[in-house]
Amino acid sequence: MSKLIEWECKIALIDNENICYTGVNRPKCRAKIKLDDLTREILTRFDSWVADNILRERKDLELLGRLLYSVLFPTGGENSEENLRDAFESDFRFFLNNKSNERDRLRLTLEIHREADELSKFPWEFLFMLEPLGKSGFFLAGEKTELILTRYVPNVPGDSNLKTNKEEPLRILVIFSHPDGLPPMDSKLTRDIIQQIKDLEDLKNVEVRIEENPTHKRLFKLINGDEERGDAKKNPGDRSRFQPHIIHFIGHGEPGKLALMRDAESIQEDEDNSNSRPEVFGWYSSDDIIELFNKHTPHLVFLHACEGAKPSSVGGFSDLARDLVYAKVPVVLAMRYTILNRDAALFAKTFYEKIRNGGRIDEAVQAGRATLGQRQETRRGWSDRRFGTPVVYLQSKCNQALIDREEPEPERASKAPCSDRPGFNPNVKVPCPGPRCDCMLTLDSILCIVCSCPVMRCPGCEGKGNHFLFSKTAGMCGRCGYRAPDIRPSAAAAASAMEAALPITALAQPEDEAFRTKPPFPATSSSAPVIRSLGKEADHISRPDQPKGD
């Protein structure tokens, strides 16, 4: 089996106005978010409609996704340096044309800084990208398995080593908190979800413990207490200490808080000091939850609002998820909207199986989303909000497999070689810089035969370890600012190329000094053009001093 290769690109939401895109092979591109009051209101309304489950057609979700896409990837107007959309789509085409096998993947990271608090609340999991002809497209969050969409939180210190040893079991603690006084959620379907997680013990080396209506004090002792002699040989539910790698919370929430049972002592104290009956539950803040991880921090916290949960739970879980990942927890997974119990069980099963088999966290989330996006009963695929419901927040260095893989870690794709480096490959394909042209050209191209745009390799980009073709007509590289004389292939050269029965993409003239600085192929002794094909050498080269022959 060929080794899997990963390609990475990143868009950083620096604050609520400024964004920065770092591509696979390019310097950073900075731009401003164009979010006027009308667009902001429309996005807010769309999000509300999704939350209320009003949008139930694929076209409606596509419209939301296209609007999100236009906000996140602005075209920059006349300023090509701010055209983040062109930069990302060029990278995506570059990936599709240069991946070595179907298992290769492109990871798009949304790096969300604290200052981008407004932008972080938008449902980016519905991002939708149109295909080049604009007649179809796809959702970035799972509809194409080779593209992985992930949210990252930058500049947060934490344990970057999340792996467990092969001999060590993956420990999952399920907390089911449904105290009296809150909307009932203890249904058969909820119990079925818990049983689905419990059944993961059928997989090798997985331990699951269920805690129903625990108090904060009990959880603190369970996670941080001392291990008693012989604990390791007991069943997970009988141990005095259970330090989980994953905490799966099912219950109620409010913004930045979780509902847990109160201790009997505190309830009795309130009852003695009041004429009314006190609540048996309390709302515990993100600081209270972080306190549970005093001596042991789980690798992942899963916040799960089932059917019947308090309406504010989903919004509360999203707020709490950000608080936890900014504070201490390496990975937090939350449900953005309420989700049917059967769908929650399906997602959890897919997610945990992927984790157990050595998949990375964002891969497991992507696999779960893809499962939720499939056709269901009479409805077509990707026409329901459920695929965009799971949201994962990761600290920057924590996107790992929780257990050792059976296969080697994937290689990170290196930047494509340029001509002044050993191993330069002129057949590597890059996007044509011509306006509205979707062609992919080789690095030795100087003319796109489709749009007739004269191109050349950019010495400025190559000097920074990148590669890029820019339009000679523009006379300036939009990526690095390099300026070059406006030298185009002559009409005679173009006509000669058109006469040749070859799939032509590159024409060169030896008098073009800017192109001959580091020629990708031997220069000829005459002024006639050298004709090359895209992806392979021509069978022969025609020169005036060498007649055509066999």
Describe the model:
The chain is α/β, with parallel strands linked by helices and 550 residues long. The chain has three domains: 5-153, no CATH class; 170-353, Rossmann fold (3-Layer(aba) Sandwich); 429-533, no CATH class. Helix content is 26%, strand content 20%. Strands 1, 2, 3, 4, 7, 8, 9, 10, 14, 15, 16 and 17 form a twelve-stranded mixed β-sheet that branches. It is elongated and about 85 Å long. The model is unreliable at 415-424 and 485-550 (pLDDT under 50).
Number of domains: 3
Q: What's the CATH topology name of the largest domain? A: Rossmann fold
Tell me about the biggest sheet? 12 strands, mixed
Radius of gyration: 28 Å
What are the defining features of this structure?
550 residues; alpha/beta; Rossmann fold; 3 domains; 12-stranded mixed beta sheet; 3-stranded antiparallel beta sheet; 13 helices; 23 strands; 20% strand; disordered C terminus
